[in-house]
Amino acid sequence: MPKFAANLTMLFTEMPFLDRFAAAAAAGFTAVEFLFPYEYEPQQIATLLEGHGLSLVLHNLPAGNWAAGERGIACHPDRVAEFRAGVARAIAYAIPLGCPRLNCLAGILPAGVAPAEARSTLVDNLRFAAAALREAGIALVLEPVNTRDVPGFFVPTTRAALSIIDEAGEDNLKLQYDIYHAQVMEGDIARSIETNLDRIGHMQLADNPGRHEPGTGELNYPYLFARIDDLGYRGWIGCEYKPRTTTIAGLAWLDGCR
Asked: 10 is in which domain, residue-wise?
C-alpha cells in the first residue's frame, strides 16, 4: 500500500504546532509534511523530527502573506526579488531538516496583470528555484489548486501545471498531485494518475466534498490506493485534509492501509 505522511498544518490542530510531531508519531506516522516552517528555528523542528523518528517529506516555499489570503507569489511580476529571497530561505530550512522536496504555489493572478506576463514570470521563477534547489540536492514540485476554494488561482489544473512544467524544462521540477484539488477541477482521478505518474513528484489527499478524511465523500479511496500501488508509485501521499471531528477519530481509514 502507499506510504502516508501526516500534514501537520491540517491534522492535530487541537494542539500547538510543535506538539503535533509527537501526536503524529503516536498515531503511527513515520513521516510528516506541513505548509511552512518559518515561524520556528530549523533546529527546533529538526530536534522534534529526530526525537520522534519522523522524516519530513515536504514543505512549501514562502508564499506571501498567508493570513491576508495570499496563496503564493511566484506568478507576481512585481515580487520576483521577494520570491527569489524566499527560495534561499526555504533551502536554509530544508537542508538541516533533511527535506527532499519543496512545493511552489503559483499564487492568485494579480489584478491588472495579463495572464501571459504572469505565466512568463512563473516560468522564470520556477527555473530559478529549480536551479538553486538542484545545487542543494532538493526537488521542486508545482501544485495546482482548485478555483472553487481559491478563486483566481493561476494554476488550477493538472494540464495547466504540466504545460508550465514543460515550458520551464527543469529535470528536478515535477507535479504535486493533490487528489482533492484534482477531483474538484477534473475528476477521473485514477486515469489521471495513471497517465501522469512519471510526472508526479508528490501526492496529497482529501475526500470531496468537505475536504475531510478518506471515506467521508464521493471518492473510492480503497480502489485508488490499490491502483496507485499497482502503478508502482513509491513516493509519499500527504494527508492534507480537515478531520470531520477529531484527527484521531478520523484515522480509522488508515487502519486498513497498514
From this structure: 3-255
